[in-house]
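dumping this here so i dont lose it
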């Protein structure tokens, strides 16, 4: 299998895109560690897998915005599964029901969105990057969003945080490229997830209406993209931003 002997970490992997990516990695033979506030949805999916596949997944319930929790998680993951080869910084979210016009927004909400959507990516990357650099191999895939490029009304704080992820991706990619480590970003558009359903209806309707493909994608569409960027075949791709959004925004 393509990822046999690889160790992958997926933050926010309890459901949606994260869970789809976990299942994809397991199907490819990887050992996977997951950190999420709610691992129950993923555990239910693992119960349906062959026992040997489910046994290769370590699920830890915890807050990705808590530095202490993150440190303990990585300690446990590396002790149980081995050094991390692949990191998918998936965790993040918009203000959701607290979202709205920037002119009517609160700083407390911005700070939450930036913490969960940008600083978690830096924190997890800082943990694994030195080891990847020392071993001469690594794949880091960061979650951004096409809203960072389209500038959707009502998502100003989220767009700012996720464009920060793009800038971080490019800088870290340049730093680690000489050491066999690639760093790329994926930017989903309209993807059917529970979190996506919490967007304000007018925001979601506008996103779908602006999508040339004319439909909402599935988490598996993004998971397949992450799998490719994490593969050996993608060794010459780094610092790139790949939009998975049905053509809503074209670089």
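and the seq i came up w/
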């Amino acid at each position: 299998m393509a990822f046999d002997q690889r160790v992958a970490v997926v933050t926010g992997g309890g459901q949606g895109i994260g869970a789809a990516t976990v299942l994809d990695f397991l199907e490819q033979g990887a050992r996977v560690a997951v950190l999420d506030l709610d691992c129950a949805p993923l555990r239910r999916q693992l119960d349906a897998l062959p026992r040997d596949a489910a046994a290769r997944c370590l699920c830890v319930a915890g807050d990705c915005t808590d530095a202490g929790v993150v440190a303990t998680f990585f300690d446990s993951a590396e002790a149980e599964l081995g050094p991390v080869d692949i990191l998918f910084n998936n965790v993040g979210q918009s203000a959701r029901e607290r979202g709205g016009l920037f002119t009517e927004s609160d700083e407390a909400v911005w700070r939450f969105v930036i913490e969960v959507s940008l600083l978690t990516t830096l924190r997890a990357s800082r943990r694994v990057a030195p080891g990847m650099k020392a071993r001469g191999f690594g794949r880091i895939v960061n979650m951004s969003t096409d809203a960072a490029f389209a500038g959707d009304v009502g998502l100003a704080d989220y767009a700012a945080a996720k464009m920060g992820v793009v800038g971080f991706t490019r800088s870290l990619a340049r730093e680690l490229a000489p050491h066999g480590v690639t760093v790329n970003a994926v930017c989903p558009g309209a993807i059917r997830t529970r979190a996506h359903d919490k967007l304000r209806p007018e925001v979601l309707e506008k996103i779908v209406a602006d999508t040339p493909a004319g439909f909402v994608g599935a988490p598996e569409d993004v998971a397949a993209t992450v799998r490719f960027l994490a593969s050996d075949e993608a060794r010459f791709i780094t610092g790139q931003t790949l939009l998975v959004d049905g053509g809503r925004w074209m670089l």
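DSSP finds nine helices and seven strands in the chain.
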